[in-house]
Design goal:
Number of helices: 12
Mean pLDDT: 89
Oligomer: single chain
Radius of gyration: 17 Å
CATH architecture: Alpha-Beta Barrel
Structural class: alpha/beta
Strand content: 15-25%
Order of helices and strands: HEHEHHEHEHEHHEHEHEHH
Distance between the termini: 38 Å
CATH class: Alpha Beta
Number of strands: 8
Length: 251
């Protein structure tokens, strides 16, 4: 568990965001295996970042307390567990996530309309402001990978189909690569969030991502939020790296 927050992660609950503050668009991925490692990253970043992704790795290692502590410190949490199960199970899981106070969470759009509606309704019942995001095609996949699992057509076609399904069933946002973001904006409009993983500053390695873009490219393509992990969290000076990315977003 995380230790008492004032001793390890200073609270920033009094921080106010201007509408055009680039920090509202940056999500830092805490892809680590312990609360201690997460604490160090959050403390190093200070007020350079306000929203953190807690994914399968950290949540499996530490459980919901890591989320509670981040929320208590004034941070926003993007809970990226990509729920995908029968509607009743997903609805119950989303309800529990909403009670934790997370700001955003993910469900697989491929789970179908009933599952998506169950997630949205569960979120609304507990936390109306919670942003339920439909995951489309993972940024580690390309068209060859999709073909192997039985999908026909282009990545763009699949992303558009799943995005339309998610939005029609109440999701208020989509998770997709920025490579497809411009198509979604032109085809489906502007009244929803697009959260873009696979973002790497110019000169960074791609690791296991395939469809990768820079922060500036993602925003220009229509992304409302970008997720950045290792380029920030493994930097010698995480706060400086975050500020550099914020500059690219703001520019």
């Amino acid at each position: 568990m995380m230790a008492a927050l004032p001793n390890h992660i200073p609270s920033i609950s009094g921080t106010s965001l201007r509408k055009n503050d680039p920090r509202s668009r940056l999500i830092v991925a805490l892809d680590v295996s312990s609360a201690v490692a997460a604490q160090k990253i959050v403390a190093a970043l200070g007020d350079s970042a306000l929203t953190y992704k807690v994914g399968m790795q950290l949540y499996t290692a530490e459980g919901p307390q890591v989320v509670r502590d981040l929320v208590a410190s004034g941070r926003r949490v993007f809970l990226d567990l990509k729920y995908h199960d029968i509607p009743n199970t997903v609805g119950a899981a989303v309800q529990e996530a909403a009670r934790l106070g997370v700001s955003m969470l993910t469900v697989h759009a491929g789970g179908g309309g009933k599952m998506l509606r169950a997630a949205v309704e569960a979120a609304r019942a507990v936390h109306p402001g919670l942003l339920v995001l439909g995951v489309t095609v993972l940024t580690s996949l390309d068209e060859h990978d999709l073909e192997k699992v039985g999908f026909r057509g282009t990545v763009r076609d699949e992303v558009l189909r799943l995005s339309a399904l998610a939005l029609a069933n109440g999701c208020r946002g989509i998770v997709t690569s920025a490579h497809e973001a411009s198509t979604l904006r032109s085809e489906l409009g502007d009244d929803f969030a697009i959260v873009t993983p696979g973002v790497r500053p110019a000169g960074s390695g791609h690791a296991d991502q395939v469809r990768v873009v820079t922060p500036a490219e993602a925003i220009a393509a229509g992304a409302s939020h970008i997720v950045v992990g290792r380029p920030i969290t493994e930097a010698a000076d995480p706060a400086a790296e975050a500020r550099a990315i914020l500059g690219q977003i703001g520019g």
